[in-house]
Amino acid sequence: MGEGIAANLAGIQNRVSQAAERAGRDPESVQLLVVSKTWPAEKVAEVVDAGHTCFGENKVQEAETKVPALPGNLSWHLIGHLQRNKVRKALPLFNTIHSIDSLKLARYTSNIATELGKKPDVYLQVNLAGEESKNGYAIAELERDLDDLLSLPSLNIVGLMCIPPAAESPEDVRPWFARLRELRDSLQQATGRELPGLSMGMSSDFEVAIEEGSTIVRVGSAIFGARNYA
Ligand SMILES: *Cc1c(COP(=O)(O)O)cnc(C)c1O
After folding, report:
1. Torsion-angle region of residue 42: left (phi > 0), alpha (psi -120 to 50) or beta?
2. pLDDT digit string (tens) for 8-64?
3. What's the CA-to-centroid distance between 197 and ligand 1, angstroms?
4. CATH architecture for the domain at 2-223
5. What's the gap in Å between 190 CA and the centre of ligand 1?
6. Is 219 close to ligand 1, i.e. is its CB under 6 Å away?
7. Which of 15, 48, 73, 206 has a beta carbon 3.0–4.6 Å from 201's, enabling a disulfide?
8. Across the strands, what pairs with 31?
9. How far apart are CA 208 and CA 219, in angstroms?
10. For position 1, what pLDDT does the model report?
11. pTM, 2 dp
12. Residue 2's pLDDT band (boundaries 50, 70, 90)?
């Protein structure tokens, strides 16, 4: 199994590079975030041993035990919903947050970050399809709040993130990825500020996401195998 994980990682890295090249993009412009949620530190260590340093977790509580059990030179990204009462614990663990979705949460996180001497990179999560079951900014609210978000002193807002509606095939998801890129383009125009990051694409659809401009793909099960939440 150990070799399996390293081989899977190499295979995914290859597919990331090939998708970038197909799209006429520099493969270096796409980052692979290995999503290690539900997997114990020993499993994650196999990916670390294969030379990978960038990992995503969706729960602060799970990261609290996993992060200290692994080498200190790794980069940890929070990809799950951030609850206000977890901000103080999250900031020392994660250097990047993909899930800020309200001005209130952003202000609070910036205040605590200032207090702790941190300045995380932040992706603003957008609920493109307006799904009730999903977190994320509605587009109109994001347009309204963006200037205020960009003025927060201790958040480094780098771009947008989305989790599109579930689909049968990756091609069905393409329009959502395109829409996130277009939203980013229009927000850049409106504010005159750069939002270079697009956090989009998972195991089932990362190649399409890269073709549509993703700068960071979040891939878990294609590397570790199917998760068991039990
Ligand atoms: C779990 C998760 C992923 C990874 O999903 P896979 O299908 O296993 O690649 C990506 N993004 C978010 C926000 C997740 O919660």
Report:
1. alpha
2. 999 999 999 999 999 999 999 999 999 999 999 999 999 999 999 999 999 999 999
3. 17
4. Alpha-Beta Barrel (3.20)
5. 31
6. yes
7. 206
8. 216
9. 13
10. 43
11. 0.97
12. very low
* Beta-bridge partners for 218: 33
Q: Which two tokens stand for residue 67?
A: 């992060």
Taking the C-alpha atoms of residue 93 and residue 108, their distance in angstroms, rounded to an integer, is 17
Mutational pocket test of ligand 1: of 97, 98, 218, the residue with most ligand atoms within 8 Å of the beta carbon = 218
AA letter at 71: P
CB 214 within 8 Å of CB 198: yes
CB of 12 shorter than 6 A to ligand 1? no
Nearest protein Cα to ligand 1, atom 10? 218
DSSP secondary structure string for all residues of 10-39: HHHHHHHHHHHHHTT--GGG-EEEEE-TT-
Domain regions of the chain by residue span: 2-223
Return the structure tokens found at 48: 């670390």
Axis-axis angle for helices 41-49, 2-22 (nearest 10): 60
Indicate which atom in ligand 1 lies nearest the CA of residue 227: 8
